[in-house]
Write a structure and sequence with these properties.
The protein is an all-alpha fold and 236 residues long. The protein is built from ten helices and no strands. The radius of gyration is 19 Å and the shape is globular. The termini are far apart.
Length: 236
């Protein structure tokens, strides 16, 4: 459904409005509103509550699960070397998954009503309101749903003895990702890797949306040629 000239009313719940933008949605969603205020998504209070997640919820909920998975691997007799290797491999796997999801799913182009609506819930809202502190991390319920197919994929690709430790590494990588993402929006690093990551991510939001898909690392952006260009040095 495409309504020519449709205007979103920012004073009303947004989710069921954005689909009506049709082909104009992509341009609209990449015109950010820089405000720390949290917009309302749903008129329903329960649905609205489920979309709002303080950043500290992520390590609080998922780090105990990471520890439990590691403990399970140890109880199953996985040698320390294999445990450490599986954990590191899981973290590395997450960095590629992080990049791939961000580039190919979160930035998919949509024009239909439900495509726009789902994309807005998934990632478009973050580009429209990049400083909304309650929507910078994924709600645990959504992450739990994603973990089910991810676990099944891991079991197919990784030996059974290493699979829980590999999942622990992947989940740890996700926790680092969400906490890093929050920091890149609200922290003020002045130099080093954190400064470079923040610069790349702010470029992604405000200048070049088709570059800078890595959050915790710029490695895959370098590999696939999507690293934002560095600003030219000013001559003295």
């Amino acid at each position: 459904m495409v309504n020519q000239g449709y205007m979103v009313d920012l004073n009303k719940p947004l989710v069921f409005q954005v689909g009506r933008l049709g082909e104009a949605y992509d341009e609209w969603v990449h015109q950010p509103i820089v405000s720390k205020e949290t917009p309302r998504f749903f008129a329903n209070g329960v649905l609205e509550f489920m979309t709002r997640t303080p950043w500290w919820t992520i390590p609080t909920v998922w780090l105990p699960v990471v520890c439990w998975l590691i403990s399970s691997s140890m109880k199953n007799g996985l040698p320390p070397y294999h445990l450490a290797t599986s954990l590191i491999a899981g973290v590395c796997f997450w960095t590629l998954l992080e990049y791939s999801l961000h580039r190919f799913l979160f930035h998919i182009k949509t024009t239909g009503y439900w495509g726009n609506t789902i994309h807005y819930l998934l990632h478009g809202c973050h580009h429209k309101h990049p400083m909304d502190g309650l929507r910078l991390v994924f709600p645990p319920a959504a992450t739990a749903i994603v973990l089910v197919p991810l676990w099944n994929v891991i079991k197919l690709l990784v030996p059974a003895s290493c699979a829980p430790a590999f999942l622990a590494g992947s989940l740890l990588g996700y926790v680092i990702y969400d906490c890093t993402h929050y920091y890149l929006h609200y922290g003020k690093p002045s130099k080093g890797v954190p400064h470079d990551l923040k610069r790349n991510h702010m470029n992604h939001h405000f200048k070049i949306q088709d570059k800078g898909f890595g959050i915790t690392s710029a490695f895959w952006d370098r590999i696939f040629g999507t690293l934002p260009p560095k600003p030219a040095k000013k001559s003295s």
